[in-house]
Amino acid sequence: MKTSIQNSSFLAASEKVAFDEIHRDKIKFNISRYDDAVEKGLNNYNNLDIAKNRAGFIKYKVINELDRYLIEFEDNFTSNGGKIIWAQDSEEALKEIIKLTQKHSINSAVKSKSMTTEEIELNAAIEREGIDVVETDLGEFIVQQAGQKPYHIVTPAMHMSKEDVALLYNEKFGTPNDLTPEELTLYTRKLLREKFTNAELGITGANFLIADTGSIALTENEGNGMLSMSFPKVHIAIAGIEKIIPKLEHLDLYWPLLAAHGTGQAMTVYNSIISGPRKNNEKDGPENMYVVLLDNGRTKLLKEERQRQALSCIRCGACLNACPVYKNVGGHTYDTTYSGPIGSVITPYLQSIKKYKHLSFASSLCGKCTSVCPVNIPLHELLLLNRNHSVKKGYYTFFEKQSINFSSRVLGSRKVLDVLSGNTKNKLIKLSIAKTWGPRRELPEIAPKSFNQLWKEKEIDDA
Hints:
Layout: H1 5-18, H2 21-42, H3 48-64, H4 66-79, E1 83-87, H5 90-103, E2 108-111, H6 115-119, H7 122-127, E3 132-135, H8 138-145, H9 162-173, H10 181-198, E4 201-204, E5 208-210, E6 215-220, H11 224-230, E7 234-240, E8 244-245, H12 251-262, E9 270-274, E10 288-294, H13 298-302, H14 318-322, H15 324-329, H16 340-350, H17 353-356, H18 368-372, H19 379-392, H20 398-411, H21 414-419, H22 422-437, H23 451-462
Parallel strand pairs: 1-10, 2-3, 2-4, 4-7, 5-8, 7-10
Antiparallel strand pairs: 5-6, 6-9
Helix pairs in contact: 2-12, 16-19
């Protein structure tokens, strides 16, 4: 079995990005600012471990009783006047959303930040229908103008400096190429205000789906999410089926954890709870509200007794910021919607284990991702389980199989190890694994004599 094209592309992209000093400086600078803010934010907790244990327990309980909570959410949301659309995969989700745009004669849409919509590639699909769709989160707006995918699940434009953005705006809008971040923000705000007031459709994700009230909870820092829901006549929220929490009161636990681990804030600036379309006595909000509940491989992950815990993720991005691999190869190298440790765990199930199994091997297994997770997902353990799963499925190369078999026989035999001299062993290692080891790392030198040989010589000398 040959190495997958995706693996080869990943290795080539990793090589290029990891040794791009300018790129690395941008990422290290931006992540260091997050690290400083998050450290301060977590200090607000008197006992962080208790909060994480409670949050992890509730989410894992929900994952194991997902059908029950989804039905409860549907019953309560529909009783509030909203409509539910169940989508088994991205194709079905897009088909139903396009039907809705046709039903309501939609020509323009505004969209707040949502990784789930990135997952199903919503923008491209509705643009093909002639609908103008604009990202309204500043970072998402920037990468949309650049024709790129989000680099990070919380900070989409993390890979771009303020100079990069100024040059992009100069190219796209003819603004001066030396605008400050404040000036760039004001320009974007003015441009988006008109989009908000004229849009016929508002699209959002959902940070949480609240079962007992039939509501979606949205958390953001720019107010664009609220504006995306307030002005348009139609609101479509798209969420993975795992986003359920049992009760409204649990937001008291999850909102601060999400803010502290994501950006270091005690709370994000705007937190909204939306339970359906506008009521007769309300002055703003949509006339029609739909929630698309997306599977798209999540039930495949749900079948895995251990890996299903990854569905507890609240998308704070902490594991990406902590991961030494992510910090060196960057978000775009993964070529997936969800990058970093959490992406490496879930993507093989959301997409294809055969196609994306290499992501689970792109880890140092240092465990930092596990230690920073606000819901106690044992990410480094799940990466190991994924590796084991891919091997059991037979997704390995002939060379990998033969080298493991050979090394197992050699390393399992004291006699064979002692027959070969240190120099011979070094030559064999260079011939067999030098290419795999990589051109930028030096192979460790094996000593001329083994510990076993040295010990025997010591016994002879002592006799």
